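Just wondering, can you check both lines?
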Amino acid sequence: MKNRAAFTLIELIFVILLIGVLGGVAVPKFLGMRDNAKITSELSTAASVQTAIDACHGEWIINEGSFTCGFNIDPSDASQFDSASGYPLTLGSSDTSPLDKILKNGKSVKWVKGADGYYRGPASNNGVKAASPDIAGKPDGNDYWEYNSTTGIFRLVDN
């Protein structure tokens, strides 16, 4: 009898089945990572936006109009701020650069401001499918961000 050093057909089929099962379990987990990254990025940027808004408001209160706030906001231009509350009236210079007035790298973030005046980030704009049921506090394709220049609140609107 010869000494064989190869796999039998049954062993090969078993290994192929095992790889298929592992792939079937692992692939869906990795597919969700892209959506989670978009959601995390959007939430992080939104937190930075709110912090920048609060910083501008704090400077407005302390210095009463003579201060440096944001990156493209002229504090001496009264039309840049709500005169009663001291919050910036707009966060960006255009719909394609919606956050460049308050964030240092505001032109490089993947956010847009729609004609409706609402902000949409990587998760709410780039197709993270709307969860069913909707998960509160996590942006997805049917959600948007709203900025109120009277109260200075930048909040997620879950739809």
Remarks:
- The helical segments are 9-63, 122-125.
